[in-house]
């Protein structure tokens, strides 16, 4: 591959450099530099030639620092683009230049991980991503600090598991390069370690509690950044680890889709609700990766692309509401549609997108995954009519999504008049960021071919995919409308019971105290054991000293002449017996 | 040519003993002078013949007109050369201390030379019966030397040693008898082939092995057959303690090594693995129990004596494991231990002469007052613990290496633990000497016992005889410390010199 200015260095380096400039340049100039840089990177990623660039060695192992293929390109593209939108939003929400600089380091390390061509480079960026995102959370102070600490611990554990997986993988393969192992992780134990380690990042059920714990706490603009990178880098890494899919991962994805949506339905905190939806939506992507067919993987990566658009838009709208009202709880909001029409419209677009309503981008990519689960995956134990197990899970997740966003929209924008302090419309720059992203959500929903062009596999070509996908067919549209109708009916039924639910505990309510008291017990046990050993040793030394101070204690046992010869005879007898003579 | 001079190694000190008695008729100093001359000549002879043996291969000569293969032989190979030189050098060196410290009397010098006769004889003999004869000569001389302190305690200890040692020697002789019944020969080289012919699993051969090992293990003072040793070491005159601690058990351990590998040969261990296991277990217990007993002692000389129980355990473990590295380590530790323990006993004697201090507590603050003596003693102690590059480290290292190579992991653990155990009692002593405030006896010694206040004088354990350590004692202790370190540094050269001997020993 000939050297080209476009492949002279990884995009991550440019973004990290921009982070440094942003931190030093002051708020106005800093955000300008940051936005221009990420905008530039967006174009750069779009036009850079595919292939393996910047090979070298890392810690003495062969490494690839910049690898562009259809998978890394689509993820990198949307990462860079949404960073630009989020920087505009940061500017509009009074974020400090320091926070944006931290956010840029986070963006940079995510880009580094995505464009890595080997496991070692990726895991280095991966760990850096955990560090920078933790700093981004911590920067806000207050309750975000402890949540950030829990986040750091969990991601530290996850990162270590991934590290263990790739070390084991290296032992089996002899190389860290992706190209050396086209089948992904080699061996059962590396696969389990990788699945669980990456599972922390993508929010496997049971490992997901950091999502709703962390994302609602920092600055509203920081949440926009956070909702994009960690989980989606995880999806990308999951693809690298399991390029041929895995049954368990597919079902885990389906379960996540249902669990996340169900848990979201029970939330009243806006950003907490949205965080559960990250898990739910990532579930679709994980299901796509797990199914492993070309159609499913195209759907998964399309969903990564679309999800980043509408989920960041959702966090922006939630942030805008919070910015204007100072209130995060849906119970105390309402009637904001008139006060904040642009925000309400953007929310509506984002909600219809995430729920998969025909005409919006979520409908397109979610449809691909569901189609893949029907045509290219096993039927599974549960078959209802024409619908198979995983497909049913994914559809059920869709109903849950509709339900919870109807709830969100109803309580935030429709329900009753707003009773708080006077509210004005969101500032123009915020509106600009929201409108920009909202327009794309609609664009990719209507012009599905534009999205297909970005996907790693051409889902409309029979030679490439097992089952050709058409977005707008009658059954598919009916399916989307039916899900929406089920959501509306469901909400009408569930509205009353839901309004009575307070804060619902998640698994972290169990494991946080468990870890805390467990660690304390461990420390206590170790120190007490040490103290006991210490006491025993000191006691022994004291006894020895006492014996030494009073030799008569010991001299009682001194053998006299007769005793000595008696012992000698005993030993002789013993030795002869041992030798088998007597 | 040099073969024919071998009998001199035994004859010279034997005749010297007679000469010393004769000279003693004139004056005691003449006896001392004769002894010194004889030992100097012995040292020269041992050095010359030893170097011949190492350079040109083993020397041997038949004695008394008995023909091979039954003949009575004197043999010097690399191993016996090393022991011979050790015996000659150490006895000459300790004599320098003995003439100062000695209880005196012509008889003392005669006994001293007889002891050297016995030890040299054990080293050169190539015949199991003559080994018994020399063992008894050694024993009798030692009993007399222990008793030469002239105190009641020393008499009792000498008697205990006499009875115990005689029984042990008799056991050895019984073992020789069984071997003779099985083979009809007493020559070591001949026995090696005849025993193999008789069959290693024959009860006669096994019984001979058991009796011989128990007899020599008693002489070597392995736990629980050590009971004579602390009493003998503690109650003998200081110079005698130094001599017998350095040499007597050392040569007994040499005899054990010689019998196991020259007479029974490694093939015996192959055929009867329980024999090896028994020896290893025996020695490993010795290492641990000896150290523990040493920690509990308050008297310095007893502590050093129990330390020997532990260190000989280490030597026997090495020779029982039987890999080349382990056997070489055992030889190195045997030689190194003799130097270090001899030096420490001389130091203990010098301290007792100076201050009257004989217990650990009385050693408090010693190094402040006598920095050179204290420092050299500390070097010897640390060398014994096994701090590199001293010889104590080298010996343990090779033994441990051998154990690891042989796959005897429990033994390797015991060996590494023995370092800690040795540290346990010597660290105690070093702490007393260097850190603790001075004891009254030490204070009294440095005050000269005169310009302190009256209380100090009244409470001092014994009136000090001098305020500075004697030059000879100091030279011996410092010399021992230097040799301990130099031996450790040149241990690879020693390995090269002894390699052919050990290879011959270990070839089945």
Explain what the structure shows.
The complex is a heterodimer of chains A (582) and B (508). With 582 residues, chain A is mainly α. Among the domains of chain A are: 255-268 and 275-498, no CATH class; 507-548. Chain A has 22 helices and 2 strands. In chain A, a hairpin with a 2-residue loop joins strand 1 and strand 2 (61-68). The longest helix of chain A has 42 residues, at 508-549. The relative contact order of chain A is 0.08. The mean pLDDT of chain A is 86. Chain B is mainly α and 508 residues long. Chain B has a domain at 281-508. In chain B, 79% of the residues lie in helices and 2% in strands. Chain B has helices spanning 8-26, 28-56, 78-101, 106-124, 128-147, 152-183, 188-198, 203-220, 228-235, 238-271, 273-295, 300-321, 324-355, 366-369, 371-385, 391-405, 409-434, 440-446, 454-459, 471-489, 491-506; strands at residues 59-63, 72-76. Chain B has a two-stranded antiparallel ribbon with strand order 1-2. In chain B, strand 1 and strand 2 form a beta hairpin. In chain B, helix 3 (78-101) runs antiparallel to helix 10. Residues 449-465 of chain B have low confidence and may be disordered. Classes of the chains: A mainly alpha (582), B mainly alpha (508). Chains A and B meet through helix 20 and helix 22 of A and helix 6, helix 8 and helix 11 of B.
Features:
heterodimer; A: 582 residues; mainly alpha; two-stranded antiparallel ribbon; 22 helices; 2 strands; 3% strand; elongated; B: 508 residues; two-stranded antiparallel sheet; globular; cell membrane (chain B); ND/Mrp_TM (chain B); transmembrane (chain B)
Task: Provide a concise account of the structure shown.
Chain B: Residues 446-469 are annotated as: Disordered. The complex is a heterodimer of chains A (582) and B (508). Chain A has 22 helices and 2 strands.
């Amino acid at each position: 591959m000939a050297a080209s200015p476009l492949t002279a260095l990884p995009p991550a380096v440019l973004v990290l450099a921009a982070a440094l400039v942003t931190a030093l340049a002051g708020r106005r100039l800093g955000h300008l530099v940051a936005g221009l840089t990420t905008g530039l990177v967006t174009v750069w990623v779009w036009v850079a030639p595919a292939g393996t660039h910047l090979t070298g060695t890392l810690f003495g192992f062969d490494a690839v620092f910049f690898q562009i293929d259809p998978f890394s390109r689509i993820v990198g593209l949307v990462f860079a683009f949404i960073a630009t939108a989020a920087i505009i939003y940061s500017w509009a929400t009074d974020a400090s230049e320091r926070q944006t600089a931290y956010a840029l380091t986070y963006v940079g390390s995510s880009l580094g991980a995505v464009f890595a061509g080997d496991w070692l480079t990726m895991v280095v960026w991966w760990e850096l991503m955990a560090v920078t995102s933790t700093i981004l959370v911590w920067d806000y102070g207050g309750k975000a600090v402890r949540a950030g600490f829990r986040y750091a611990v969990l991601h530290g554990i996850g990162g270590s598991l991934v590290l263990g997986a790739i070390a084991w993988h290296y032992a089996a393969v002899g190389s860290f390069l992706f190209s050396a192992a086209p089948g992904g992780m080699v061996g059962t134990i590396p696969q389990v370690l990788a699945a669980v380690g990456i599972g922390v990042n993508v929010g496997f059920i049971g490992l997901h509690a950091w999502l709703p714990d962390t994302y609602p706490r920092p600055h509203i603009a920081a949440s926009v950044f956070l909702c994009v990178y960690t989980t989606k880098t995880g999806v990308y890494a999951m693809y690298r680890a399991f390029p041929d899919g895995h049954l368990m991962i597919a079902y885990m994805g389906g379960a996540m889709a249902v669990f996340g949506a169900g848990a979201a339905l029970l939330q009243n905190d806006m950003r907490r609700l949205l965080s559960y939806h990250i898990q739910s939506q990532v579930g679709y992507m994980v299901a796509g990766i797990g199914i492993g067919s070309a159609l499913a993987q195209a759907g998964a990566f399309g969903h990564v692309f679309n999800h980043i658009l509408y989920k960041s838009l959702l966090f922006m709208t939630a942030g805008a509401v919070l910015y204007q009202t100072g209130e995060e709880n849906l119970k105390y909001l309402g009637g904001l549609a008139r006060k904040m029409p642009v925000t309400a419209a953007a929310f509506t677009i984002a909600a219809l997108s995430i729920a998969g309503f025909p005409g919006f981008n979520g409908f397109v990519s979610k449809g691909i995954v569901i189609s893949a689960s029907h045509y290219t995956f096993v039927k599974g134990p549960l078959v209802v009519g024409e619908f198979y197990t995983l497909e049913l899970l994914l559809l059920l997740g869709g109903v849950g999504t509709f339900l919870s966003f109807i709830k969100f929209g109803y309580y935030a924008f429709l329900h009753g008049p707003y009773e708080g302090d006077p509210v004005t419309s969101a500032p123009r720059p915020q509106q600009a960021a929201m409108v920009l992203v909202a327009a794309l959500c609609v664009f990719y929903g209507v012009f599905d071919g534009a999205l297909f062009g970005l996907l790693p596999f051409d889902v409309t070509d029979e030679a490439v995919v097992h089952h050709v996908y058409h977005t707008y067919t009658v059954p598919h549209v009916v399916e989307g409308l039916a899900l929406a109708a089920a959501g509306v009916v469901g909400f009408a039924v569930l509205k009353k019971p839901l309004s009575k639910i307070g804060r619902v505990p998640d698994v972290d309510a169990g494991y946080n105290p468990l870890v805390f008291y467990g660690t304390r017990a461990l420390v206590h046990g170790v120190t007490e054991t040490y103290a006991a050993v210490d006491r025993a040793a000191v006691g022994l030394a004291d006894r020895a000293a006492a014996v030494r101070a009073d030799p008569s204690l010991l001299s009682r046992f001194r053998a006299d002449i007769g005793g000595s010869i008696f012992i000698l005879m005993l030993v002789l007898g013993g030795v002869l017996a041992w030798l088998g003579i007597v | 040519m040099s073969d024919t001079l071998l009998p001199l190694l035994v004859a010279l000190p034997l005749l010297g003993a007679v000469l010393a008695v004769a000279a003693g008729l004139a004056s005691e100093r003449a006896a001392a002078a004769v002894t010194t001359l004889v030992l100097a000549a012995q040292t020269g002879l041992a050095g010359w013949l030893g170097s011949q043996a190492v350079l040109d291969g083993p020397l041997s000569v038949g004695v008394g007109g008995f023909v091979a293969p039954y003949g009575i032989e004197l043999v010097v190979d690399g191993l016996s050369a090393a022991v011979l030189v050790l015996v000659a050098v150490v006895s000459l060196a300790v004599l320098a201390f003995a003439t100062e410290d000695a209880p005196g009397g012509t008889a003392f010098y005669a006994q001293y030379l007889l002891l050297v006769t016995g030890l040299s004889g054990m080293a050169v003999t190539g015949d199991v019966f003559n080994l018994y004869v020399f063992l008894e000569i050694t024993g009798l001389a030692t009993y007399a030397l222990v008793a030469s302190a002239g105190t009641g305690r020393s008499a009792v200890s000498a008697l205990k040693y006499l009875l115990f040692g005689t029984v042990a020697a008799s056991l050895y002789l019984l073992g020789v008898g069984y071997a003779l019944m099985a083979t009809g020969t007493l020559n070591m080289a001949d026995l090696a082939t005849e025993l193999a012919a008789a069959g290693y699993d024959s009860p006669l051969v096994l019984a001979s092995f058991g009796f011989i090992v128990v007899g020599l293990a008693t002489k070597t003072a392995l736990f629980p057959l050590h009971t004579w040793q602390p009493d003998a070491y503690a109650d003998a005159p200081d110079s005698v303690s130094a001599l017998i601690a350095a040499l007597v058990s050392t040569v007994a351990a040499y005899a054990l090594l010689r019998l196991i590998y020259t007479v029974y040969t490694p093939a015996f261990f192959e055929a009867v693995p329980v024999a090896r296991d028994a020896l290893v277990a025996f020695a490993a217990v010795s290492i641990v129990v000896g150290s523990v007993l040493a920690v509990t002692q308050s008297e310095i000389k007893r502590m050093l004596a129990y330390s020997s129980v532990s260190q000989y355990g280490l030597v026997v473990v090495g020779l029982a494991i039987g890999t080349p590295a382990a056997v070489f380590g055992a030889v190195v530790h045997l030689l190194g231990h003799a130097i270090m323990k001899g030096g420490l006993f001389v130091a203990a004697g010098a301290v007792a002469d100076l201050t009257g201090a004989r217990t650990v507590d009385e050693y408090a603050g010693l190094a402040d007052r006598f920095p050179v003596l204290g420092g050299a003693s500390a070097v010897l102690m640390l060398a014994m613990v096994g701090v590199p590059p001293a010889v104590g480290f080298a010996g343990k290292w090779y033994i441990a290496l051998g154990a690891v190579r042989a796959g005897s992991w429990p033994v390797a653990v015991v060996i590494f633990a023995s370092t800690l155990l040795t540290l346990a009692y010597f660290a105690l002593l070093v702490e007393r000497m260097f850190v603790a405030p001075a004891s009254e006896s030490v204070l009294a010694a440095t005050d000269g016992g005169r310009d302190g206040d009256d209380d100090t004088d009244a409470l001092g354990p014994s009136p000090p005889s001098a305020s500075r350590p004697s030059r000879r004692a100091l030279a011996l202790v410092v010399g021992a410390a230097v040799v301990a370190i130099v031996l450790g540094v040149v241990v690879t050269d020693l390995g090269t010199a002894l390699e052919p001997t050990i290879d011959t020993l270990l070839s089945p």
